[in-house]
Amino acid sequence: MNIAPSKTAVSNIPFDQARVDRLMEEAGIDVLLATSKHNTQYLLGGYKFIFFAAMDAIGHSRYLPVVVYEKGGPDHAAYIGNRMEGAEHQNNPFWTPTLHAACWGTLDAANLAVEHVRKIGKAGARIGIEPAFLPSDAYALIRKALPDAKLIDATDMLERMRAIKTDAELEKLRIASELITDSMLATIQWACQGTTKADIIEHLRREETNRGAHFEYCLLTLGASHNRAVSPQAWKKGEVLSIDSGGNYHGYIGDLCRMGILGEPDAELEDLLAEVETVQQAAFSKVKAGTIGGDMISHAEGVLKASKVAPYTDFFAHGMGLITHEAPFLMTNHPVTYEGTYAAKPLETNMVLSVETTMLHPTRGFIKLEDTVAVTDTGYVMFGDRARGWNRGGTA
């Protein structure tokens, strides 16, 4: 399905065009070829094709969506998708003036992208690509077909594009966090003595799905164990439970951790969770637009270092949105292997952070809180700000 460019001005661009154009200019990019699911979704205003939501492979190849966007030229934008996406366009038209819903694999998608770039007169331009999300056969085809073009890694530019959330994005992140929090609390209350980790994880999956979230994972510990993988281990009276889950709402991630107890927490457990909460609050106290990101990190780490639980406790904070680790990148290789390129930069309004303090106690188990906060001019707002203490199991 090929649709010719519109003859009218583009008025329904779903992102801040001036900001994206500025970021492209700073990165030395004339034309974007976005090929990751998260960046094509962003550039299409939240759209993601449901048929390939859980997998990419089909036949001998894979699904490769492409958004072509020329700096300062939204009238030249195009979306290249699967043949079945023509029906999606009929129901909810894409904003791009050109649509090629014609592909079943990587090479036909790359061919159409090349044809479109030539058609808009940019065959020798500086073209931004996503190396980690551009299959080698598609890359080779583009490189050969556009020998005069300069291919530029657009990863950083696209990460910067997504770093500042719109109000609509913040609302999706808030809903995702609320749904995950409600689901985890309901699951803890449902689980009882003898309930296995496998049963608890499956129950959480159903709770999230029934609330309208898309379940992605659950990392769960019981008792003194630090092993968060699914297993037949059963919950016992007096044991702690740590439940860390990621799920999304319309593509935006909710990622939180809460604690449970089968029975009543003793004084030691109350004290240990309070130590974790103290570090969390130290981090929150420095979250505000204008604060240097690394200053927030160092303050929380300083509070942790002075704590008696420091030898077996870790602090971490990272950006999140359409994916679980995105800008702002505040810490280097801790634990995910990327550079903390935002540590020396100020936090900005509408950035979103996941803040987590993890204790691997030698005898009491895995004790952790993970929270999601959005940066504001005066501080922060927390999403899913409930159930942050000891939640009793077996009470449903």
From TrEMBL:
User: What are the residue boundaries of the Peptidase M24 domain, all occurrences included?
Assistant: 171-377
What InterPro entries does the annotation carry? Creatin/AminoP/Spt16_N, Creatinase/aminopeptidase-like, Creatinase_N, Pept_M24, Peptidase_M24B
Q: Which residues form the signal peptide?
A: none
The record's section on Pfam families has: Creatinase_N, Peptidase_M24
Query: Where does the Creatinase N-terminal domain lie?
Result: 19-164
User: Taxonomically, which superkingdom?
Assistant: Bacteria
Q: What is this protein called?
A: Xaa-Pro peptidase family protein
Write down the species: Mesorhizobium caraganae
